[in-house]
């Protein structure tokens, strides 16, 4: 089923009628800066998802490092190191077109998440990049975020997903491997990709190219 189009919601009034008014706490929690409590959440987070928008559409991609890797310069400024990746630079391309950015911070074992939105610029300042080095390797660029909105998200989604329960973890070998994913898509294009070798070397490649 795809949903009867006659029931599509096309107006704000219709949408709001299905939910009602937000409780006071949902409104009080929003700030236009990072206070001491939100700072504590960011400092404890080793992972965030980053959403951007460009001329080819939207993108959402993961970022991770040891907790505390996001630098909080002041209550309005965050600096995010852009580490080694797949060199597609989709998010960075988007930020050159549209500087708007949104971040969702997750903390292992904690139900609440933190949402931060603002505008970003990219910096290649050598001194800044050197100051964010890991294992002697600086990030390729730094993303400097000016904070415009920040608020925590309640734990319902994480609780519903049972996200941090070890018993709910999925064994990686029950899903298609990364080599299988790429090889299958390549075959549809009448091209060859050695997925077996890719999978064989994957763990070592990831371990030696983190930074």
Automatic annotation (TrEMBL):
It comes from Pigmentiphaga aceris. Pfam families: PNPOx_N. Coiled coil: none annotated. InterPro entries: Pyridox_Oxase_FMN-dep, Pyridox_Oxase_N, Split_barrel_FMN-bd. This is Pyridoxamine 5'-phosphate oxidase family protein. Residues 34-154 form the Pyridoxamine 5'-phosphate oxidase N-terminal domain. The lineage of its organism: Bacteria, Pseudomonadati, Pseudomonadota, Betaproteobacteria, Burkholderiales.
């Amino acid at each position: 089923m795809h949903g009867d189009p006659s029931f599509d919601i096309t107006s704000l009034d219709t949408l709001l009628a299905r939910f009602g008014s937000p409780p006071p706490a949902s409104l009080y929690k929003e700030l236009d800066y990072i206070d001491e409590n939100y700072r504590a959440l960011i400092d404890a987070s080793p992972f965030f998802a980053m959403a951007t928008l460009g001329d080819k559409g939207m993108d959402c991609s993961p970022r991770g490092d040891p907790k505390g890797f996001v630098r909080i310069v002041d209550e309005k400024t965050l600096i995010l190191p852009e580490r080694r990746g797949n060199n597609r630079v989709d998010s960075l391309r988007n930020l050159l077109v549209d500087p708007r950015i949104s971040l969702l911070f997750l903390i292992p074992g904690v139900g609440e998440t933190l949402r931060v939105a603002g505008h970003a610029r990219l910096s290649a300042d050598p001194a800044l990049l050197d100051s964010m080095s890991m294992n002697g390797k600086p990030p390729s660029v730094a993303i400097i975020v000016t904070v415009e909105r920040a608020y925590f998200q309640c734990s319902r989604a994480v609780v519903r997903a049972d996200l941090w329960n070890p018993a709910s973890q999925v064994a990686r070998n029950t899903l298609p491997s990364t080599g299988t994913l790429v090889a299958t898509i390549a075959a549809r294009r009448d091209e060859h990709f050695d997925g077996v070798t890719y999978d064989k070397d994957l763990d070592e490649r990831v371990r030696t190219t983190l930074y």
